[in-house]
Amino acid sequence: MSTVIPPKGVSAPIPWLDSAPDATQAPPVAAEQGLGPNRRILIFRQESVNALMRTLSARDPYTGHHAHRVTNVAVAFGRSLGLPPQDLETLATAGYLHDIGKVGISDAILLKPGPLTAEERAVVETHPLIGEKIVEPLGLRPQEKNIILLHHERWDGLGYPYNLAGVKIPFLCRLLALADVFDALTSDRPYRRALTVPKALTEIEKQAGKHFDPDLATKFILLIDSYHPLTLSQIPPPPWLSRCL
């Protein structure tokens, strides 16, 4: 991978995806990074996270792969912005679990091979609230729970579940929303083909100031455009995720 000059507002060059080792395996045990003394509890939490994702991935393999890619992109983006290690760990853990609430959505809706009706969409839009309840016993940090709950909020206030707008949406939630939508746009689905990266970035540009924080959207577009010519759907999941599927 050749070194490139980072876009304006990005702190340093990063290799595409490989810049996030903590996102290519299960979210790291914090004690190993000097962030907490109770290793046994943290390992239990990590194993619980993996078990939850295995449950979801067994029903919907796309969601498991999507979680991996979103986590990688979000952590890489966070690193490029110079975020501190604890924020990167938050993105790794919450990125991995952001759609865990979909375990509470029926297969008839979750696996439907076509566009959803308005009623079905309303059911899907409950998954952040379901996810918040599912992870409650894990003792996640407030920032991690916020991402699971608020990653579908929009800059213009038209998101869900609470119609938050602008800077009322926590920063890391706004960041992960870009990675989430970018991966959705660049992934094949039963009812549509993946967009190319340039087309996906064009869609994100159109939604800057509407769906997305305009400043973050600009930095995200410049970063992605600088680092990778392929769709993320062509990148296989890492070995640890393959073992979970």
TrEMBL record:
According to UniProt, the name of this protein is HD-GYP domain-containing protein
State the organism of origin: Desulfobacca acetoxidans
- Signal sequence range: none
Q: Which Pfam families match?
A: HD_5 (PF13487)
Q: What PROSITE patterns is this protein classified in?
A: HD, HD_GYP
> Can you give the residue ranges of the HD-GYP domain?
41-236
Which NCBIfam families is this protein grouped with?
A: HDIG
**Where does the HD domain start and stop, copy by copy?**
63-185
